[in-house]
UniProtKB/TrEMBL annotation:
Ranges of compositional bias, category Basic and acidic residues: 641-650
Name the record gives this protein: Phosphodiesterase
PANTHER family listed in its UniProt record: CYCLIC NUCLEOTIDE PHOSPHODIESTERASE
Cofactor(s) this protein cannot do without: a divalent metal cation
């Protein structure tokens, strides 16, 4: 699997869409595409600085884009009634799966997708709004490195630096010197100097000198960015990074696994966990070679980044490392995308139905194969940045208390805007700017992608992104389209950010303890300020099981289920469904078993009917014990049988030791 991943990384273009490795080989031309192209040309021709010859060429292209006869409809628009029926059924089934995850009390007002208009986020107390006006619009424009989100040019394209798309390395190995100092050009890039010199041998002396000077500068620049030697050591403050030592870390053997021992690695490398993991993932993705990244600046930045994370229980550098690993897992392991395919009619109508056996019939690819190297580097970098300088308080708390940060960002995605702005400000330090080998267009595109990925982690956008993805999957999601690739990448980083309930139970319990402790810290500050303590943040009234049940039902399950149905979750050999879904159901069942039903208010019950007296007596004999040793009778005509109550009581007592909510000190 790793070999296939490396080969795909080497054969991929860097900043242009990876059309040769995409899911579909052909893209139908529609009238909307032609209209969009003509609109871009018209905007280009509006520039007064264009030379006459360029303006004439643009006019000729615009004329060619105006056919004399109507453009035939694309094949995907000529769908048979049967295909349309399958598509509609698939869409309705996805909506029904999401709808079953919400309690009836929240379903009083629904959007045209059948989702509740307002859903409370149990992790922050915020109200997540699901827009009910119209379907979210997803642009069909294919972005490039010189276009903005509107599809219009924003910066002139500059010549790209050499990028190797071949399997061999960009640098040649140095050969031993045989002719003394005169053989200095036998280094990594001397072949370009020799070629340039020979090609200009018949030119004038001044031209020859100019070419030699330019190539000499290029040789020196290439030497600066050559791969580090195996014994190189890079000092960053008081910390030294040795790539050879990092590569020999035994934890990397489990890097492609979902249950990667992130806590064990953190205990061994508390101050450098994030930077070491980022280096290893960049190396696995071959990003150092493709972009000729400067190792010293790379370590300077990512070590400064991890030092900027606060020493708080949850939103720290350990969480950033875990999210980065989650993104890597979802992009480097093989998946079986089901884009545009209907769900079998006999599939079970449950919140998270089992993976259909026909899933493996689709081609196995990795998400990274469909992305360009620039998009992949932006996604990994955003994962490391996404919670930088997090204060351990929620957006709702900052807005309610009019924190300077909330005022600065107008109460909108306060923390996410802060993470993105501060982490990019840190990157602008000349000693940290490891992107100096990218041209201006690539840097602009990289920044745009990083900001989009970080802002997508705001749970306010949770349902908007899910609805957009489901709408695209049920119609024509195409990984040739940069907008669709960005949408998939947003899902990837979002799932990695909230992956705790999808991990094995022992890891999930550790993360639960940390998030609860951070919540209790906020609750203590709210109590000190004399304001109402946010739900689930009162240390004196812990409700861990209810917190996790609400978070899994309302936030994690809708996201993981839509990715599962689209075939974007890796499946281990021998399993019929992803381990992410298996862990999610197991952990959810654990928390549900711990929820203690709230005591009902005592009400005067009517005289039992004769046929109910026997049931009353049997229920009384299996009543629930109270604190003073008496037996409290809880029975009604629709109550559970004594056998079920007895089994539930026994199960609760037996699981109390290992399934009880986290003990917070």
């Amino acid at each position: 699997m790793q070999k296939t991943f490396h080969e795909a990384m080497r054969n991929r273009r860097t900043s242009l869409p990876a059309t040769s490795l995409s899911l579909s080989k052909t893209t139908p031309v529609t009238i909307s595409n032609i209209t969009e192209a003509r609109g871009i040309l018209v905007d280009l021709m509006a520039g007064k600085e264009l030379p006459p010859n360029v303006l004439g060429c643009l006019r000729a292209v615009a004329t060619l884009l105006t056919p004399s006869t109507p453009l035939p409809a694309a094949k995907d628009q000529k769908m048979t009634s049967e295909a349309q029926r399958v598509r509609d059924a698939s869409k309705e089934r996805r909506i029904s799966h999401l709808l079953t995850l919400f309690p009836a009390s929240l379903s009083t007002h629904h959007t045209d997708f059948g989702l509740p208009c307002v859903v409370e986020n149990p992790y922050s107390g915020e109200q997540l709004l699901v827009s009910g006006t119209s379907k979210p619009r997803v642009s069909n424009i294919t972005f490039s490195t010189v276009t903005s989100a509107t599809g219009l040019p924003t910066i002139a394209a500059e010549p790209n630096r050499p990028r190797s798309s071949r399997s061999e390395s960009y640098w040649k190995p140095e050969t031993p010197s045989t002719n003394g100092p005169e053989s200095i050009h036998d280094s990594a890039s001397c072949h370009r100097l020799d070629v340039a010199a020979s090609s200009n041998s018949v030119s004038a002396e001044d031209s020859t000198a100019r070419v030699a000077t330019e190539n000499h500068v290029e040789v020196e620049e290439d030497r600066e960015n050559e791969p580090c030697s195996s014994d190189a050591v890079y000092a960053t403050g008081k910390v030294e990074f040795c790539p050879k030592e990092i590569n020999e870390d035994p934890y990397w053997a489990q890097l492609p696994d979902w249950n990667f021992p992130i806590f064990d690695m953190y205990e061994k490398n508390k101050e450098t966990c994030l930077s070491r993991l980022t280096y290893r993932i960049f190396q696995q993705a071959d990003l150092f070679r493709i972009f000729r990244l400067n190792h010293q600046k790379f370590f300077n930045y990512f070590h400064a980044l991890e030092q900027g994370y606060w020493n708080i229980p949850y939103h720290n550098r350990l969480h950033a490392s875990d999210v980065l690993h989650g993104v890597y897992y979802l992009t480097c392991n093989s998946v079986h995308p089901q884009f545009g395919q209907g769900v079998p009619a006999d599939s079970q109508d449950e919140a998270c139905p089992p993976q259909p056996k026909s899933l493996r019939d689709s081609p196995a690819i990795t998400v990274s194969e469909t992305m360009s190297a620039l998009e992949l580097m932006a996604l990994y970098t955003a994962a490391a940045m996404h919670d930088y300088d997090h204060p351990g308080r929620t957006n709702a708390f900052l807005v309610a208390n009019e924190a300077p940060m909330a005022i600065l960002y107008n109460d909108r995605s306060v923390l996410e805007n802060h993470h993105a702005a501060e982490s990019w400000k840190l990157l602008q330090d000349p000693d940290n700017f490891f992107l100096d080998t990218l041209d201006a267009a690539e840097i602009k595109r990289f920044r745009y992608l990083v900001l989009e990925y970080i802002l997508a982690t705001d749970l306010k956008q949770h349902f908007d992104i899910i609805i957009s993805f489901n709408d695209r999957v049920s119609s024509s999601l195409d990984m040739n389209n940069e907008a669709d690739r960005m949408l998939v990448s947003k899902l990837v980083i979002k799932l990695a950010d909230i992956n705790s309930p999808c991990k094995p139970y022992n890891l999930h319990l550790k993360w639960t303890e940390r998030i609860c402790e951070e919540f209790y810290m906020q609750g203590a500050e709210e109590e000190k300020r004399g304001i109402t303590i946010t739900a689930y943040m009162d240390r004196s009234n812990p409700q861990v099981a209810k917190l996790q049940d609400s978070f899994i039902s309302h936030v994690v399950s809708p996201l993981s289920c839509c990715m599962n149905e689209a075939g974007l979750l890796p499946i281990l050999p021998g399993l019929e469904e992803p381990e992410i879904m298996i862990n999610l159901r197991h952990n959810h069942a654990k928390w549900l078993s711990e929820i203690v039903p709230e005591p009902e208010e005592e009400e005067e019950l009517p005289e039992p009917q004769p046929e109910q007296e026997q049931d009353q007596q049997s229920c009384s004999s299996s009543g629930v014990g109270t604190g003073n040793g008496t037996i409290e009778e809880e029975c009604s005509p629709i109550s559970e049988s004594p056998e079920k109550l007895e089994r539930a009581t026994t199960s609760d007592e037996s699981d109390q030791a290992d399934a009880q909510g986290p003990e917070i000190r």
